[in-house]
Design a protein that fits this description.
By secondary structure, the protein is α/β, with parallel strands linked by helices. 42% of the residues lie in helices and 23% in strands. The protein is built from 22 helices and 19 strands. It has an 8-stranded mixed barrel, surrounded by 6 helices. Strand 14 (407-411), helix 18 (421-432) and strand 15 (436-442) form a beta-alpha-beta unit.
Length: 544
């Protein structure tokens, strides 16, 4: 005992907890308890006990609720002469401890230094939390989002649902009401997300952009949940945020899926721009200009005839868009369409041209025309992503009392169409409503072969590159012949576009194409010009 008392001179005033312990084992050599043979004041303070009460006492008699994970550490030091360390949380002290145990000068005894690293652990956890969480909303932050995307390929998922949210009018709120008000709306959106998406991963990736990720989920369940959230946002006064969402099986890249959700978000954003009264001035300049041009009638409907090769007569026309500039010049789409596509505004133009076509068809039928007629209206992938597409088209059509059998929806530039489940569902619904559905530009880089798998398709437009090349190249002719034959096997009708010469006309006729279109028959013309032309030239033979 005197030997232990002699330690007081060296360890008594040391600020680090120190103790010498006798390791108690049962008859089977199992360590069952620890007895304190020496301890300094720092040790007593750590455990909140009087030093004299601890000396000679057994550890688990004093602290029966403490775990026994560290007994093997003490036994190894006391009986095997091993030095070792352990990070351990003490449930008794509610502290994070770092223990270093080493053999003492007698078998069965060991010494232990104990450091309280609770503050260090808490600080480290706070730093980790701050590094991966947004402090305002308590959602995961951009660092966490980028880390997730980087690690995604190493941790594959059998499915992933993604929703992309962009706040509406945040800058205007900050400018008009102050940043505290804007911050309150950010927090409000985060709370809505947390209450609706209880089990999903939620991120704030920038000041006004948020991402929801749902791992290994069923398609129907995720889309239903995301759609309900989008509708919840829309039902609020001056909708807090716009939302786009998508689901994919066996996704290769989380970032690619989120980019698609981001693109779909713009469709929802346009509805906000249209209907928001509080921040109507927040509409982008290009949108304000587009709406003004639509109201002024500066976008014109041109028609290019479509001929039925077997019946040898005109059977319809493709609706083409032209723009009349302030100087009166009529411009082709190449001069005005790209900025609208890049800013996800082309759907405004699609709906406008659809309504223009319905209005014209209503007037056409009222004139007792003898030719059955169908107009083909182009529909971009942005428009096919609109949540209530079929309802909006039907509302326009019914306004003019036009039969859906007189309307054909052409899918323009349908790259990755089959990956956009919502677009495919829209087409299937339109087909059930008796619209015709056409695949545009088949054979060019915008229209992959897998787009033919869409069950709603009835007609396929073969690109001018195919029809023109087939007249000059034997291999292209064989390719075109095979395409027409394969389409017919799938129950699809083929329209040959870009027919410029009599030779091309005779070629596609001989290969079995169902319809044709091009300047050989007639160049695009205004609706009024078309009405006069169609009555004077009902037969193809009259068009040469």
């Amino acid at each position: 005992m005197e030997a232990f008392q002699a330690l007081e001179a060296s360890f008594g005033s040391m600020p680090v907890a120190f103790t010498v312990i006798k390791v108690i084992q049962d008859e089977n050599g199992h360590t069952v308890d620890l007895k304190f043979r020496y301890l300094n004041q720092a040790f007593a303070d750590l455990y909140g006990r009087v030093k004299e009460d601890l000396l000679g006492a057994c550890f688990y008699e004093l602290f029966p609720l403490e775990g026994k994970q560290w007994l093997s550490l003490f036994a190894a030091a006391a009986f095997q002469g091993k030095k070792d360390s352990l990070h351990q949380y003490s449930s008794e002290l509610k502290r994070h401890l770092f223990l270093t145990c080493y053999p003492w000068n007698e078998t069965g005894y060991c010494a232990c230094l104990i450091f309280d690293e609770t503050e260090l652990v808490v600080t480290q956890k706070e730093l980790e939390y701050t590094n991966y969480h947004d402090l305002m909303t308590r959602l995961r932050n951009r660092n966490c989002f980028l880390s997730y995307c980087e690690d995604f390929q190493q941790h594959p998922k059998w499915s992933l649902g993604a929703a992309f949210l962009d706040m509406n009018g945040l800058k205007e709120m900050n400018d008009r009401y102050g940043h505290e008000y804007g911050d309150s709306k950010i927090i409000e959106l985060a709370c809505l997300m947390r209450s609706h998406f209880e089990d999903e991963l939620l991120f704030r990736i920038s000041g006004d952009e948020f991402v929801v990720l749902s791992e290994n989920c069923q398609e129907a369940a995720f889309l239903s949940k995301a759609r309900a959230f989008q509708q919840k946002l829309a039902a609020q006064e001056n909708c807090l945020a716009s939302c786009g969402y998508v689901w994919e099986e066996n996704p290769v890249s989380a970032e690619a899926l989120i980019r698609r959700a981001d693109q779909l978000m713009y469709q929802d954003k346009q509805q906000y721009y249209l209907h928001s009264r509080v921040f109507s001035g927040s509409r982008p300049k290009l949108l304000r200009s587009l709406l003004a041009d639509l109201e002024a009638g500066n976008y014109l409907m041109y028609l290019q005839p479509k001929v039925d090769l077997k019946a040898n007569q005109i059977c319809g026309a493709e609706v083409l868009t032209r723009y009349r500039s302030t100087d009166g010049n009529v411009m082709l789409p190449a001069a005005f369409l790209k900025p609208l596509e890049q800013n996800h505004l082309v759907s405004y133009l699609d709906f406008y041209m659809f309504e223009t076509a319905c209005k014209w068809l209503s007037a056409w039928e009222g004139k007792d025309k003898i030719l059955p007629f169908r107009l083909t209206v182009s529909c971009s992938m942005d428009t096919l992503s609109v949540l209530d597409l079929a309802e909006r088209l039907e509302k326009i059509r019914k306004r003019y009392q036009v039969s859906p059998s007189l309307l054909s929806i052409e899918i323009a530039k349908p790259r990755d169409m089959m990956k956009r489940e919502q677009a495919v569902r829209h087409l299937e619904l339109l087909r059930k409503l008796h619209y015709s559905v056409e695949l545009g530009g088949f054979g060019d880089r915008h229209t992959p072969a897998e787009a033919l798998a869409c069950p709603a398709l009835q007609d396929v437009r073969l690109s001018p590159a195919l029809t023109g090349g087939a007249a000059e190249s034997r291999r292209m002719k064989i390719l075109l012949d095979g395409m027409i034959s394969d389409c017919h096997k799938m129950g699809l009708r083929c329209l040959a576009e870009g027919i410029e010469t009599k030779g091309q006309h005779e070629l596609v006729l001989s290969l079995g194409a169902d319809y044709a279109q091009g300047n050989y028959y007639a160049e695009p013309m205004t609706a009024a010009e078309f009405e006069d032309w169609s009555q004077s030239c009902p037969q193809i033979c009259c068009l040469e």
